């Protein structure tokens, strides 16, 4: 393990500068965090962590504390895949897990339980190493089963070019970058989005207002108006020299099934890969201020939306009926899959089986006849 190096960055701007050239569709996990989340994060070194593993080149990063309610974010990049053999991956995640154990944490819940979001294989390998190390130190922990899984994918100029013209899209959809003048009409949609999703933390109106006031001037919010009424918004983030991420697309129920999401995502994607935004968009002429990108990334957590994104050029695979065999979604330029599975997984305390055994040996469960506690079984000792 001598040629592997663990690095902790104390300054977020240094971390972002070092990692931006490696920021392809794998790095920073397609919008789990945006650049503004990093820059607006707390600075307490016992609560915010920017970590990396190197072997000549950057292999992976692990960050925590950037956004309240989020887990640790484990990221890699495509160029590291060729050197990240199963043996190297095991060594790298073991070094990372051991190194985390030496850090100072303001709150034990930062690592107990340890929650991690990232590419499926590295996350599983890292948490397996972490659990093994902690068990070796006498901790009774295990991997929690049934992690949350999403697809991360991207579209490129090559995948979009062959698409037929969007002749079925309604000309009544007008799409534009949002500005501060959109704040009042955007607020209800933004609040509704947080209230209807399974979100790690809830949001109150004052917090939503503060977020929008901070992020609208960046130009990374887009909106769609249908017949003059705001019908959808999209939030972008994770801007790097080569990529940009569609973090959120929200269409309220009363505007669904009308092609709104398709029009919005299609317009944004074409705009950022340099194919022009199209007739439905109201944007200044010329390239995007953020620059033309090689890839537009997004997460797909809803299986019902997968076909929509395939039609728009995103490289999603097809699954067999049992959900196991995956085919397609190959990038025509590289011959490699243009997607990966990302998971949110955590460790947990093992249940104390000795208490269960003692109870089984000490008595027999009997049903208590009471309307106050229906179907509760009491052990009489």
TrEMBL record:
GO terms for molecular function: acyltransferase activity, transferring groups other than amino-acyl groups. This is N-acetyltransferase domain-containing protein. Signal peptide: none annotated. Pfam families: Acetyltransf_7 (PF13508). InterPro entries: Acyl_CoA_acyltransferase, GNAT_dom. It comes from Dichomitus squalens. Residues 173-346 form the N-acetyltransferase domain. CDD domains: NAT_SF. Residues 350-371 are annotated as: Disordered. Residues 360-370 have a biased composition (Basic and acidic residues).
